[in-house]
Amino acid sequence: MANATAITVTDLTANAVTTRPTGDTLDTGTAAVTLAAAVGGIGSRVILEVTNTAAANLVASVAAGDDPPAQNAGIGALTSSNIAQNAVVYLGPFETGRFGQNDGSLSATFTPASGTIGATIRCYRLPKI
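Given the sequence above, the corresponding structure tokens read:
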């Protein structure tokens, strides 16, 4: 297989049932992988689900945004603690003023502690209610 080239964004619908989507997979290489999620500039309604499928720990990090539009980018990235094998973590929602990229996306990096990277990423965009 090959590493995903972007994070797929799944739109959730209000007052509806959504089946868990197929995640984007990282399973080749030993270096960190950076992917973008085209969230349309509305990070405040976006959540990332990260599952570590490798034996070694994984760290997920959402990059600080571009200034502009992210006037609070100086606060820095959001970085998870070590994600153990088979553990699932949720990151977000994200303040657009801190994490928004100038193209409206979010940028996330996934770094294996050692060995081959192994992760599944899902991105959910919550509806405006």
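Residues 21 and 29 are 24 Å apart (CA to CA). Try to locate this feature in the token string yourself.
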